[in-house]
Description:
The structure is a single chain. By secondary structure, the protein is α+β, with helices and mostly antiparallel strands. It has 2 domains: 36-152, Immunoglobulin-like (Sandwich), CATH 2.60.40; 159-256 and 301-307, Immunoglobulin-like (Sandwich), CATH 2.60.40. Helix content is 18%, strand content 36%. The chain contains 6 helices and 16 strands. It has helices spanning 2-20, 64-69, 101-108, 112-115, 228-231, 258-273, and strands at 36-43, 49-54, 76-80, 85-87, 89-92, 121-124, 135-142, 145-152, 159-166, 173-181, 189-196, 203-211, 219-224, 243-244, 248-256, 293-307. The strands form 3 sheets. An 8-stranded mixed β-sheet has the order 5-6-2-1-16-15-11-12, with helices on one face. Strand 3 (76-80) and strand 4 (85-87) form a beta hairpin. It is globular.
Amino acid sequence: MEFRILKYSFYLLLIGLLLSCTKEVQIDIPGYKEQLVVDGRIETGQRAIVLLSTSNNVYSSTNYESYLNSFVDDALVLLSDGTQTDTLTKICTDDLPQGLEDVAAAIFGIPAEILVNLHLCAYVSMNMVGEVGKTYTLQISHQGKQYSASSKIQQSVPLDSVYWKPEGNFTDRGFSWAILSDPASTADAYLWEVKYLQDLQFSKTFNPYTNDKFFNGLTFEFGYENPMSFQDPNADEAYRGYYKLGDTIVVKSSKLGLKEYNYFEKKYNQMYSGSSPFAVPTNIPTNLQGGALGIWVAYSPWFDTIVCN
C-alpha cells in the first residue's frame, strides 16, 4: 500500500514538472525593406500603361499623403515585343493633354478635379499597341536596379451569347448573363468587366477573375451583378447589384495567362478576407524579376453589348 502511494506521488510529481516546464520562444520579424511596386497592363489594340510606386511599411500610418508620395516618377521603362522596343513616355496628371482628365481619374482612382492639381505619373507606350500572339517584355530601371517581366496576349475566347433577364420577384431588375464555350485544349483564365454604354471606363465585378479549373472544355451559363450600382451613392439600396429594364451595357471578357491569374486570385482573396481574424496570411505571387512586387499582365478582350429588355 505504501509503495503504491509512493508510486502515484512520483507520477504526480513528474507530471507537475512537465507541466511547469516553459520555453521562451523568440520570433525574429524581418525589418521593413522598401520595394518597387509595378501595376502594368497591355491589351489587344491598346497602349501599355504602367504605374510605379513604392511599398509602405505595414506598421506605419496609412493616409492620403503617404499614398500620393509613394508614386515613382524617375524610372526608365522599356517595352519590347521581340522585334521592336519602345521607351515608354512619362505622362503626369499636372500636365495632361486636354480630354484625358477622366481617363486619368479612372486609372488613379481620384476625382478629375483633384487629380489635375497633383503630380502623379504613368508610363505609356506611344509607339506600340497590343497584338494577339505577341509576348511583351517590360524592363524597368530605377535607382540602379533592374526589373523585368513578360506576358503574352493570347487569342481571345468569344462569348456565345449575352443577355439580361429579371431576377427573383422583380420584373424590371436583373443581372447580366452570358454563355461561354471554354476551349478544351488549353488552360484558360478570364477577367469580367462591364460598363454602361455612355461610360468611359469599365468596372470590375465582385470576384472578377476566374479560371477554367472546373469547366475546362464545357459550355456553361453564368451571371454577374451590376458593380456600378455599388459606386452610386444615390442608388436605391433595394436595387443595388441589379441592372434595370432599359439599360444598355457593354461587357468585356478578357483572357489572361495563368501566372497573371494566380496573382489576382491571391490578391482578391486577401482583400476580401483581410479583416477576418481567421484569414490565412498569403504571399501574393508576382511575375516580375528583380525583387519588385505587383504584376505585368497582357489581356485579349472580347466585347459585346446587352440591351436590357
